[in-house]
Amino acid sequence: MLIRFILNCAVVLIAGVPLGQCGSESVPFPGGDPPGLEPRVFAEGIVSTEGVDFAPVFSRDMKELYFTSMNPPQPAQVFIMIFDGRQWSAPTEAPFCGGFDTGTPALSPDGRTLYFSSNRPLEQSLQSFEPSNIWMVQKTSSGWSDPQELGPPINSSSYERCPSLARDGTMYFQSNVPGGKGKIDIYMASSENGRFAMPVNLGGAVNTEGVEADPCIAPDQSYLVFYSYGRDDGHGEGDLYVSFRDADDNWTKAMNLGPTINTEAEENFPALSPDGKYLFFSSTREGRRFPDVFWVDAAVIEAARP
Asked: Which residues face 33 on adjacent strands?
């Protein structure tokens, strides 16, 4: 097929996968032109399918896309798409899934380590599953390594899930470890020389007595987008909120992202493009049986700044 790369990166069709405007230099997004200030389905029929689709994450060079998909009652699995300079590959199941619940991928700043959530057993011989914890795989010359459970101080005998990494390697995640403020809270753990420090609860500006989950940290940690359920200012089954870092390095009181993003349905699993220009999230809006991935110009986040 003859391919013409038009300077404005207008939509073309390559190997059956529509490509939109450039995500990074000559790398296009799969599935069509980027959105404006109204959310649109992302990569319909490719990433957003008839199943449950959520938690997309791009590598910093925009040439790799990882996302989670699930066809109930099957467990969630991570899928990978690769841009080879001409076209995006079709989604393929990550080799480290192993038939276990595997989802919410997050890449290290150098792209060599991928973190994910899983309830797989610590030993293959075990029949019972561990509480959902955070695992990792590393890129090697021969592919991905075997999954390794992170262990303490990130994981505990409680529930840890949904890692999100800042540009300096700081990890944000959710946990119901005893001593928190609510049913599920968001924590952060700084990273130094490849080791994570003791996690810190983000406190009352972010966490409540209810559920705070699915953290998505801005690359520079200037703001945090997350899911919360049961707040007085909620629009439906669960909404997306944002908290900003103020001049004193404290988190501001979380703000609802408003009715353009949040509906009577459930909105969750926020994610950002590497350049911070686009916000991705999952939603059952418009009468969907299962959630699809939507995306929108990230200017909607700044619009919520107090």
From this structure: none
